[in-house]
Write a structure and sequence with these properties.
- The complex is a heterodimer of chains A (777) and B (167).
- Chain A has 777 residues and is of the alpha+beta class.
- Helices cover 27% and strands 24% of the residues of chain A.
- Chain A has 18 helices and 32 strands.
- In chain A, the strands form eight sheets. A seven-stranded mixed β-sheet of chain A has the order 3-5-1-15-12-13-14. In chain A, strands 7, 10, 11, 16, 17 and 18 form a six-stranded mixed β-sheet that branches. In chain A, strands 19-20-28-29-32 form a five-stranded mixed β-sheet, sandwiched between helices.
- In chain A, strand 30 and strand 31 form a beta hairpin.
- Chain A is globular and about 80 Å long.
- Chain B folds into two domains: 74 residues, Roll (Ubiquitin-like (UB roll)), CATH 3.10.20; 82 residues, DNA polymerase, domain 1.
- Chain B has a five-stranded mixed β-sheet.
- In chain B, a hairpin with a 2-residue loop joins strand 1 and strand 2.
- Chain B is globular and about 45 Å long.
- Classes of the chains: A alpha+beta (777), B alpha+beta (167).
- The interface between A and B is large, with 64 and 63 residues.
- Chain A: This is Xanthine dehydrogenase YagR molybdenum-binding subunit.
- Chain A: InterPro entries: Ald_Oxase/Xan_DH_a/b, Ald_Oxase/Xan_DH_a/b_sf, Ald_Oxase/xanthine_DH-like, AldOxase/xan_DH_MoCoBD1, AldOxase/xan_DH_MoCoBD2, AldOxase/xan_DH_Mopterin-bd_sf.
- Chain A: Its EC number is 1.17.1.4.
């Protein structure tokens, strides 16, 4: 870095610090959410009702169209061949036999692929979506075992799949770093996340730990994981001149369109990406090589392309969660108050991606302590770029943190719930910011009572029924409130009193379309039948990532602004002949399909009447959400208490979980039916994380060894008990609708709760996920 | 080749390598049956052949000429099959991708129970009468994966639809 750049970076850093301090100290009403969302005043609307999914009939009827279900005229099918070495170069690639195979349209390799720029790496600019900072099929270099090296297009899938097997490749191999031990020996770097070092220190934690009368200090290991959405990654792609049309399975359509425009050197508005239904995402349905290769092959062939990865292909091309090796050490005084909280460790990534698994995130806000040492180091392995998977950081970080807290409670002879509540902070422990809303204690007390926590065996290994040892465990779930910049929405109101909201958001099963139909209905004072929520298409406004549990907040903040604009416009149209004459936008609300004075609901005029008198068929407004300054003004986090009963077979070591309860403090729940499903789904993925999930990586050759749903085990029906879910339903006064996103918190805490229950059942502490039976024999 | 799908006859020639699933999805436009693994591990492609459930991804289309095949598109319509409605009522899905397979699988599973076929968790293998209790239901549905984790709702929907009927 030059001196000038150095100086620039210093100035920018100083400005950022000044800005942050200014935002933290600003009056509440200058900040988004400083004036509570007026929708929170409504008590009898649609929000909070257990409405069934509005897309239910399409989904149970099999008529909801997914990415691979758009048939285009003249479409050809793709099959992808993968490298079998981890690092080096393609020496020779013979595609003649494949090209001569019946039905084959073309074989694309680095030799004939269109010239393409790199996909901008996620985080490098607001709409960058790339999983890795690498060019795709532009040269003979190989960066991971499983990298796409050729794409076959044929008239049918069968022809493409067969021809792919006829490609012959030889490689010049380079030495690769494949084992975690070798990678660590080669050195580690500071982990960086969203532009900030994953590092925090308050006081002298190591010294405080050494001096503490009570302490635990242990290492915890978590393996690689894959998202394993049941829908295979797929795209149906067509070019019309320089215009690119992508039917994708995506949780970031706007990012994908912008990134593809950079890859192909075309204007952003020449790319249209839509994704009306996504068959599960969990962080995995982003922009990976297959959409780029499909678009490139479609360009080369001059025909539309359907590319659907095989299940093996998903493991080869779409990154998963990487492994972690964590240390948690806690020092406590005689009363149990934490004097030192240390959470450090190492995670593996590649030299060409930007995603260190940020496992210290939960420890940055869950407990108070006199001193902190938090640090993530990264080391580099020659593998497929890892990425975010449901609750990156918190999912595996809470396993280590909440196992350690349980170990300390056991060592001190304190109930773990009491130990947690003793250390409940009264403000953000690192930032010092006030909490926007936080009632961890209520979540614990309500959960403990409902679960029957007092019945927990006091001595580990003391309860047995036949061959089965029985125990209970508990752990804290936590995930922050996020809202990212870029949200925007359009509202169209028609004279017949129907409203349509358009926003480039996503429905992957979270219930987005249903919940935001409810929210919009309440906001506009309309019955839900008169509201349509349209999403999942770049023809709609907004840059809305379905990730970081931020989509609800992003949509909410966008629609709040669009709604303000709508009210302003309606008042202008209403004019002086209206009962509303003279009222300002903040003096009216939306009730009974029209506007009314907040102070006098007799002063009301319907939308139909306003638009009719103005001789307008419809009114269209569009607005952008304000920057998410609330995140720097309050400490905004959701929490939960996860209770688990575990049964461990004393003979075979099998673990069964017959009971689970999640008690959550996540702000207002917009739809209890879909909300409960999201919590349960997260907890079930947490059960998989605890007991069975592991992407097995062959450290000899860098190849994933279990790239199938037969060999990578996810929870099935019989693994999953009836899961009880309750929530505090206390609105967050500073978030849109009083809600905080709930897509990810469900997975957090569960692995620790299971491990703690297994300890309570058996007296054996497993610190190495997954908790398979061999570790209990 | 003749195929009988949802009561309709389709005449077409396909590559002998074509799976029943690809026949449905790519050649007949019946995309309700889903591809989640193409190797018989996830159950998303489950369809009914003369009332029995099979993984359509593991079946060659040519083997199923002139057999009565029912896919999710043929389960109900207006009105929905009671199980489809129960899935909506109990939120037995999130993304909806495994749903067609869960539905077809459950329809055939209920019939297996009615016929007295035992499962892995059946205590008395010689009994002619099976009860669709919580464990039996979950065991018998364990070939249908749901990554969103809608299992509780699926079980509730199936139980409401079938468990009350006499076995």
């Amino acid at each position: 870095m030059s001196m000038v750049e150095d100086a620039k970076a210093t100035v920018q850093g100083a400005l950022q610090t000044v800005m942050k301090t200014a935002v933290a100290l600003a009056p509440d009403n200058w900040i988004p959410g400083g004036i509570p969302d007026p929708i929170m005043r409504q008590q009898h609307g649609s929000i909070g009702k257990a409405l069934s999914r509005i897309d239910g009939p399409l989904k149970v009827g099999g008529t909801a169209p997914f990415a691979a279900e758009f048939a285009l005229e003249g479409m050809v099918y793709a099959a992808v061949a993968f490298s079998t070495i981890a690092k080096g170069r393609i020496a020779t690639i013979d595609t003649a036999a494949a090209e001569a195979s019946p039905g084959v349209v073309l074989v694309m390799t680095y030799k004939n692929a269109p010239r393409m720029e790199k996909v901008p790496l996620f985080g490098s600019s607001p709409k960058a979506a790339g999983g890795a900072d690498l060019t795709i099929m532009q040269d003979p270099s190989v960066h991971w075992n499983g990298q796409p090296i050729a794409v076959v297009l044929a008239e049918t899938q069968e022809q493409a799949d067969h021809a792919k097997t006829l490609i012959h490749v030889t490689y010049d191999e380079d030495p690769a770093t494949l084992s975690f031990a070798d990678a660590k020996a080669a050195g580690t770097d500071q982990g960086m996340f969203m532009g900030e070092p994953l590092h925090a220190e308050i006081g002298k934690a190591e010294e405080a730990l050494a001096a503490a009368p009570h302490k635990v200090d242990a290492a915890y290991l978590t393996p690689r994981h894959n998202h394993n959405a049941i829908e295979l990654h797929a795209a149906t792609i067509a070019w019309d001149g320089d215009a690119l049309r992508v039917h994708d399975a995506s949780q970031l359509v706007a990012h994908t369109a912008w990134s593809l425009s950079k890859v192909f050197g075309i204007a952003e508005d020449q790319v249209r990406v839509s994704s009306p239904f996504v068959g599960g995402g969990f962080g995995g349905k982003c922009l990976w090589d297959h959409q780029v290769l499909g678009a490139a092959a479609a360009k080369l062939a001059g025909r539309p392309v359907r590319i659907m990865l095989s299940r093996e292909g998903v493991y080869r091309v779409v990154g998963g969660r990487t492994l972690t090796e964590q240390r948690v050490a806690i020092g406590a005084d005689a009363s149990g108050k934490f004097t030192a909280l240390i959470h450090t460790g190492i995670t593996a990534m590649t030299s060409h991606n930007a995603m260190p698994e940020p496992f210290i995130l939960p420890t940055m806000s869950v407990y108070g302590a006199d001193s902190f040492l938090l640090d993530v180091r990264v080391t580099h392995i020659d593998m497929l770029a890892n990425t975010f998977m449901r609750a990156p950081g918190e999912s595996v970080g809470t396993f280590a943190l909440e196992s350690a807290v349980d170990e300390l409670a056991a060592a001190m002879g304190i109930d773990p719930i009491e130990l947690k509540l003793i250390n409940e902070p009264d403000k953000d422990p690192l930032m010092g910011l006030p909490f926007s809303q936080r009632d961890v204690e209520k979540a614990y007390r309500d959960g403990a009572e409902r679960f029957g926590w007092t019945d927990r065996p006091k001595t580990p290994g003391s309860r047995r029924e036949g061959e089965w040892l029985i125990g209970m465990g508990v752990a804290t779930a936590t995930y922050p409130y996020h809202r990212m910049s870029g949200g925007a929405a359009r509202i169209t109101l028609t004279r017949d009193g129907h409203a349509t909201v358009d926003i480039a958001a996503h429905e992957m099963g979270m219930g987005t379309a249903t919940a935001h139909t409810q929210v919009t209905a309440d906001r506009l004072g309309l019955p839900i039948e008169q509201v349509v929520f349209r999403y999942g298409d770049t023809i709609f406004p907004g840059v809305v990532l379905a990730g970081g549990s931020q989509q609800t907040a992003s949509i909410g903040a966008s629609v709040i602004e669009a709604h303000k604009a709508l009210v302003t416009e309606l008042l202008k149209l209403a004019g002086n002949d209206s009962p509303l004459a003279g009222l300002k936008p903040d003096e009216v609300g939306c009730f009974d399909a029209g506007l009314a004075a907040l102070e006098d609901d007799g002063r009301h005029e319907s939308y139909a009447s306003i638009l009719s008198r103005a001789q307008r068929d419809e009114l269209v407004v569009e607005a952008a959400a304000p920057p998410p300054l609330e995140l720097q003004h309050w400490s905004m986090h959701s929490h939960g208490a996860v209770f688990v009963e575990a049964r461990v077979n004393a003979v075979t070591g099998e673990v069964r979980v017959p009971r689970m309860l999640g008690s959550f403090d996540c702000g207002r729940i917009l739809n209890p039916k879909t909300g409960r499903s999201q919590f349960r789904g997260g907890m079930i993925m947490g059960l998989g994380l605890a007991l069975m999930e592991e992407t097995e990586f062959d450290e000899r050759n860098g190849r994933i060894m279990n790239p199938s749903l037969s060999d990578y085990h996810v929870p099935v029906h019989l693994d999953v008990p009836e899961i009880d879910v309750i929530w505090t339903d206390i609105p967050d006064p500073h978030s849109p609708m009083g809600a905080r996103g709930i897509g990810e918190i469900g997975i957090t805490g569960v692995a620790a709760a299971v491990a703690n229950a297994v300890f309570n059942a058996t007296g054996k502490r497993v610190r190495d996920l997954p908790i398979t039976l061999d570790k209990l024999l | 080749m003749n195929f009988n799908i949802n009561g309709e006859t389709h005449q077409l020639e396909v590559d002998l390598r074509t799976s029943l699933l690809d026949l449905l999805r790519d050649h007949l436009g019946l995309t309700g049956s889903k591809k989640g693994c193409n190797q018989g591990a996830c159950g998303a492609c489950t369809v009914l052949v003369e009332g029995e459930r099979i993984n359509a991804c593991l079946a060659l289309a040519v083997q199923y000429q002139d057999r009565a095949i029912v896919t999710v598109e043929g389960l109900g319509g207006e009105p929905l099959h009671p199980l489809q409605q129960a899935f909506i009522d109990h939120d037995g899905f999130q993304c909806g991708y495994c749903t067609p397979g869960q539905l077809c699988s459950a329809v055939a599973m209920a019939e297996e129970v009615r016929r007295g076929l035992p499962s892995f968790v059946t205590a008395d293998l010689s009994s002619d009468v099976m009860t669709l209790d919580h464990d039996e239901l979950r065991e018998r549905m364990s070939g249908n994966l749901c990554r969103c984790g809608a299992y509780n709702g699926i079980v509730d929907a199936i139980a409401e639809t079938y468990a009350k009927e006499p076995a």
